[in-house]
Write a structure and sequence with these properties.
heterodimer, A: about 425 residues, alpha+beta, Uridine Diphospho-n-acetylenolpyruvylglucosamine Reductase, domain 3, Alpha-Beta Plaits, 3 domains, nine-stranded antiparallel β-sheet, 19 strands, about 25% strand, globular, B: about 500 residues, Uridine Diphospho-n-acetylenolpyruvylglucosamine Reductase, domain 2, seven-stranded antiparallel β-sheet, five-stranded antiparallel β-sheet, about 20% strand, Putative FAD-linked oxidoreductase (chain A), FAD binding (chain A), FAD (chain A), EC 1.-.-.- (chain A)
Chain lengths: ~425, ~500
């Protein structure tokens, strides 16, 4: 197969593919692109290339997966610096030998590269305890559109010298520069952990549990909420509790010293009075489960036809409202999953396009009336065009546009990916 | 003429109680807690966002630089008006607009004092985690500008990890919102970019903060060592062991002398170094954890480890650390504090280097710092009335920063670059890095209206204006009852 076909995005195929082995080669590929006026799409493992609009121009696919070295691990400093193409799973396997980890579990985390995780800014359940990649990233090296290599931050856990460039490139979807290296603060693995599962008749009943976990001084590692369909999708793959009357499931993952883990579990059970199911999961089930949960209700790339993936950003207490709107249209079977203590809900719906559009419009207007935000994560370009990639579009977009124009004046990095840029 | 017109316009917006323009008043606003000075031409005290925007528009019309100031506790000169111009003081924007105890959010104006947020949240069992040592005075707006840290940032992160959204007045007077109470707003993370931008990108007029549950129990350990080396080895061991305490603070022998002579906190006077360690969270297993850390300290030859659980004893142990900077007055008339950070495993080496630098310059250096983060605070003792000593203190400071950078660290962990370290930025950043940052600045602040000449290596223009202003500031202050004559120093505004 022609190599370029592997990098097709929605019928758009690049003319050229570069697979640099070093940061310098990556920069050279960008200099070449600058000389030739090529539009560039940086690639990791491609798990989320569907986020954003299909690039308006696409000449060069810059595949960074061969930039996969660990540059410096300082175990006694709990920091690491890596090249961007390294896979998270590989990195964490290495760190496990030191009793450490980079506590990120984004969707498709078994394949995702560090650069891709940073560029998309998608998080997983562990976010509840450890923050997102944004909070763990302490340094970054980026190749700008003209091939200039720049760095921001460093390899120390506290640093206020210069603008916080790591924050700017995190979540920028590869539109401002190509992330080639990253430095993180690491965490020790918890001494002990355990997972409890609760099945509730309604989302409202689950709120007392999720909100009490939000203000729990033991900081649960994860508080993940799934609707019945999402739970069934997991149950198809592993042995999990079932209950026909449970419409909403909450997973609580506790970590720390054994006595702390038990205490969090006790408190979770006490806060789940309306639950029909209250179970502690066997250790092995829990570890299989957590490896899988963050990919539930997230569409793979390329998204299957007739499916739409969205994200709602609400407040933790608005979760039930979000759930009601998500499941309001009977003709749209919806899988949804939320970071219960953060108010972020991921959902995928399937159905005829006009109904999906109506579903998405309802979600968008819910987000807008509640002071939150809405974003399409995956789906047909036509829906993204019709609805806009995200809402609300506030006056800050003008500043974003100016930042983009300063760092990529020719608009050659992922052109059009963000719609307005 | 221009000056009189500016004053008139400012008076229309702010009234006579909201503007300062006379030299003897301006004098009070020519410094922060750093060693730099610079007198603004006007000071205004807005109470609302619209007033900030109006002041910004006036500054634009007359080409005045704008410097924003909170409580003036900054340690790098970020709020010093070295180019003159209009100073916007946020201390009258001090309303806590909302505490949301369910979603753990607070919405505040920028002049709210850091500790006031925690006090307002306390009734709900919540607090605002970043705790700069000046937290009883410093403002949230200043914290956001500097991305401030504090002892307990080891476990909970610095300011940027606790700011979810901002209302910002841009340098042209436009008001925008970035981020918000929800997480992960789509688009570029302008909130993350503005936090720590030292007032060069926009003026924060409102902030959405994340609150946290108050720990149910706290245990404080005081570990006493004969040498700094032993104490720093213990810090590395505690971190590497996989336990992240709430805080690990170190004080060396000189600091202990100062602290104990100011106030008896129970630190042994002959100790080479002490570590103050907080472990906190759930009471379950906490004492076990404290004993585990005590054993690690003992393994590195701690000669004594005290474990305090009752609040009064904990408070006493911490009072020495909290009053440490003030206690330096017992040893010397002035101190110059540095803020370099090194990888934690480099602490022993860099601390030895700092002592060596002190000896070479003939200066005493005390160390009181956030050891768990590798964030050093060498306090260089000198007498600012002696120009030669002052020169040596500044030079020794720069050399310490160089040593930190050479050890794989950074210029500043929480105090900011400001005026003080702007010319040291090239130690850390290449011309390309600085150019990229300049472009980002241009996207927000194309005319360099906001906090000019801060954070980035000084240009010729900055230095020229500065020296002219310095010359003017040494002139005696003339007391006047009426607005000043109109013909003064118009050309000084860049």
């Amino acid at each position: 197969m022609d190599l370029t076909m592997r990098y097709t995005l929605n019928d758009s195929t690049p003319h050229i593919v570069r697979q640099p082995q070093t940061v310098e080669e990556a920069a050279e590929a960008l200099r070449e692109a600058a000389r030739s006026g090529w539009a560039v799409v940086p690639w990791g493992s491609g798990t989320h290339q569907g986020i954003g609009h299909t690039p308006a121009r696409y000449d060069l696919a810059l595949d960074l997966t061969r930039l996969s070295r660990v540059l410096r691990h300082r175990p006694a400093n709990l920091t690491i610096r890596v090249e961007a193409g390294i896979r998270l799973a590989e990195l964490n396997a290495m760190l496990a030998e030191h009793g450490q980890w980079l506590p990120l579990d984004p969707p498709f985390g078994d394949r995702a590269t560090i650069g891709g995780i940073l560029a998309t800014g998608l998080s997983g359940p562990l976010r509840a305890r450890y923050g997102s990649a944004r909070d763990l990233l302490i340094g970054i090296r980026v190749a700008l559109a003209d091939g200039t290599l720049i760095q921001g931050g460093g390899e120390v856990v506290k640093n206020v010298a210069g603008y916080d460039l790591p924050k700017l490139f995190h979540g920028a979807l590869g539109t401002l520069g190509v992330i080639v290296e990253a430095a993180f603060k690491l965490w020790p693995r918890p001494k002990a952990e355990a997972t409890w599962v609760f099945g509730f008749p309604r989302a409202e009943d689950a709120l007392s549990l999720t909100l009490s976990m939000l203000r729990h001084p033991g900081f649960p590692m994860a508080v993940e909420v799934l609707n019945a369909r999402a739970w069934e999708a997991l149950r198809a793959e592993m042995e999990l509790p079932a209950d026909p009357g449970a419409r909403v499931w909450v997973l609580v993952r506790a970590g720390g010293w054994p006595a702390q883990v038990e205490r969090i579990g006790r408190d979770a059970v006490a806060a789940s009075s309306g639950a029909r199911v209250k179970d502690r999961l066997p250790e092995e089930t829990a570890s299989t489960l957590w490896a899988r949960v963050s990919s539930v209700a997230i569409l793979p790339h390329p998204a299957p036809p007739g499916a739409l993936g969205v994200r709602l950003g609400l407040l933790p207490a608005q979760l039930a409202e979000g759930a009601a709107t998500l499941e309001a249209l009977e003709e749209i079977p919806v899988l949804w999953r939320a970071h219960g203590t953060l108010g972020l809900i991921y959902a995928e719906g399937r159905g005829p396009m006009e109904t999906l559009l109506r579903w998405a419009e309802n979600l968008r207007s819910l987000a807008l009336t509640r002071g939150g935000h809405f974003m399409i994560l995956a789906g047909p370009e036509s829906v993204k065009q019709a609805l806009g990639l995200w809402a609300p579009l506030r006056p800050e977009v003008e500043v974003m546009r100016r930042v983009k124009a300063q760092l990529d004046p020719e608009g050659r990095l992922n052109p059009g990916r963000l719609g307005w840029a | 003429m221009k000056r009189a017109r500016v004053l008139q316009e400012l008076l229309e917006i702010f009234g006579p109680r909201g503007v300062l323009w006379e030299d003897h008043h301006l004098l009070l606003y020519e410094y922060d807690a750093s060693i730099d000075k610079g007198r603004p031409d006007f000071v205004v005290f807005p109470t609302a966002t619209e007033q900030v925007a109006a002041a910004v528009r006036i500054a634009n019309r007359y080409g005045l630089p704008i410097v924003v100031r909170g409580a003036g506790t900054g340690l790098s000169g970020g709020a010093v008006a070295d180019q003159g111009g209009l100073m916007i003081v946020t201390t009258r924007m001090r309303r806590i607009l909302e505490i949301d105890p369910v979603n753990l959010r607070a919405v505040v104006q920028p002049g709210v004092v850091n500790i006031a947020v925690s006090q307002a949240a306390a009734a709900h069992g919540l607090y605002y985690a970043p705790d700069p040592s000046s937290q009883k005075a410093c403002t949230i707006g200043g914290n956001i500008a500097e991305n401030s840290g504090g002892p307990h940032c080891l476990a909970y992160g610095v300011t940027t990890n606790h700011v979810l959204g901002l209302e910002v007045v841009l340098p042209d007077g436009e008001v925008i919102e970035v981020g918000g109470a929800a997480c992960d707003w789509p688009g570029y993370d302008l909130t993350g970019l503005i936090v720590g931008s030292e007032g060069t990108l926009g003026i924060v007029t409102k902030a959405v903060l994340r609150l946290m549950p108050v720990p149910e129990a706290v245990v404080t350990l005081l570990a006493v060592f004969d040498t700094v080396d032993q104490a720093s080895e213990a810090v590395s061991a505690i971190i590497a062991d996989g336990t992240i305490p709430g805080a690990i603070e170190m004080m060396d022998h000189t600091a202990i002398q100062a602290v104990e002579s100011a106030k008896r906190c129970g630190y042994p006077m002959d100790a080479g170094a002490v570590l103050l360690i907080d472990v906190e969270g759930l009471p379950e297993g906490l004492e076990e954890l404290a004993r585990h850390i005590a054993r690690l300290c003992e393994h590195f030859d701690a000669r004594e480890v005290r474990i305090a659980t009752d609040p009064a004893e904990r408070e006493r142990l911490w009072s020495g650390r909290k009053g440490a900077f003030g206690a330096m007055g017992r040893l010397a008339p002035s101190y110059y504090v540095q803020d370099g950070v090194v990888p934690r495993d480099q602490l022993p080496r860099v601390l030895r280097r700092i002592q060596e630098i002190g000896q070479r310059y003939g200066l005493t250096i005390a160390n009181v710092f956030h050891a768990g983060d590798g964030n050093l605070h060498p306090l260089i003792l000198f007498d600012e009335r002696d120009p030669e000593l002052t020169r040596r203190a500044v030079e020794a400071g720069a050399e310490i920063i160089r040593a930190c950078v050479e050890a794989g660290g950074t210029l500043t962990g929480e105090h900011g670059v400001g005026l003080e370290k702007r010319d040291l930025m090239p130690l850390l950043f290449s011309p390309a890095d600085l150019e990229a940052m300049a472009r980002i600045k241009a996207a927000f602040n194309p005319e360099n209206r906001l906090n000019p000449c801060k954070m980035f290596p000084s240009t010729k223009m900055c230095l020229e204006t500065w020296s002219r202003r310095k010359a003017r500031m040494t002139e005696p202050v003339r007391y006047r009852a009426a607005p000043p004559p109109a013909e003064m120093e118009e050309e000084l505004w860049i």
